[in-house]
Amino acid sequence: MLVGDKYFQSIWLDESDPSVVRVIDQQKLPFSFEICELHSVEDVYSAIKDMTVRGAPLLGAAGAFAIYLATLEINSATDPRHHLENAARYIISCRPTAINLTWAVNYAMFKINNRPSGKSLSEIALETAQEICNKETENCRLIGKYGLSLIEETSKRKEGKPVNILTHCNAGWLACIDYGTVTAPIYLAHETKIPVHIWVDETRPRNQGARLTAWELEQAGVPHTLIADNTGGHLMQHGMVDLVFVGCDRATRKGDVANKIGTYLKALAAYDNNIPFYSVLPSTSIDFGITDGITEIPVEERDPEEVTKISGISGKDIVTIRICPEETTAVNYGFDVTPAKYITGLITEKGICKADEAEIKKMFSDKFQ
After folding, report:
1. From CA 282, how far away is CA 76, in angstroms rounded?
2. Average pLDDT over the chain, rounded to whole?
């Protein structure tokens, strides 16, 4: 996607130094646009942990690049297998909910363990990281194509009036290397002159909607309005939302979806008001080995200070302030699970299907054991 007049992905290998992976620092947006350099497995771990890098598909790509950087750390005193297995476990442990991270790291290890003769560990690891970036980018492009059909249908029904789409958190190109999941059909609609308007949930804590989604949409010139998280139900009751598009950090084979905390409440409001609610995701976000999202998807608990404090811009500085009494106890669940029965459908790179095991199996028959 374009930032100003320059094209960026959210992760890439430095063209002049193949030992450096570059990422956009999502902690600094929208106040400043800065690039971070990752030189080691520890750098990648820290970037994921502090959410310099976030978003399920991007986490997978970052995890694969971590394995590549791990191969560069090997020297004559290193046991390569032991070193890479330790690096894989370490990176996977960083964020437990998003399945893309585990999938990508395991895939990179599989490719290394089955590499053809004549290729070094680093060569195959880098090829795999770049393959994953290309795969997720293409997944998002196809997701945009299929999701666009829903916007087109709604636009026709509204006789060309703007299609109002509500989003939660950030599932844009920043989170997905390029295009985004939720944003891909929105960008396509905007490019094809279909009038759209996006209700952007601020998405507390961390405010990824306010800070990242709003910034992305502004860069692309897409009309949007920022709202407090609790506003969505009111908008739906008054006919001001046509579609709800949310991302996904992990889905089950039966269609339950884990996403940023607060997604479940949006689904309930949409269900009560007969508004289509779609989870937009690549197949790499589906955990085909589990069936019950509520009991089987691990929900990450993050630092309570993300709840008790908030960051923003003051003058030229990003500052963090406390918003509650000093001794207040807080808990910070990063995700919730929306049961399949509240989800109208899943928008994937293979098309749109119901959030139902039979429908998911029909679309992804090769993934079912």
Report:
1. 40
2. 97
More confidently predicted of 156 and 118: 156
**Residue written as token pair 């620092």:** 25
**Other Cβ atoms within 10 Å of 239 Cβ, number:** 10
Domain extent, residue 187, equals 143-300+329-367
Residue 201 appears among annotated catalytic residues? no
pLDDT at 117 over 90: no
Give residue for tokens 């996977």. Answer: 92
Say if residue 164 is in the same domain as residue 26: no
The yes-or-no verdict on residue 204 having pLDDT over 70 is yes
User: Do residues 292 and 285 make contact, with C-beta atoms less than 8 angstroms apart?
Assistant: no
Whether this prediction's pTM lies above 0.90 is answered by yes
3-state secondary structure 82-106: HHHHHHHHHHHCCCCCCHHHHHHHH
- Let me know if residue 317 belongs to a domain: no
Distance of CA 256 to the CA centre of its chain: 17
Catalytic residue among 43, 229, 249, 256: 249
Confidence of residue 118 (pLDDT cuts 50, 70, 90): confident
DSSP 209: I
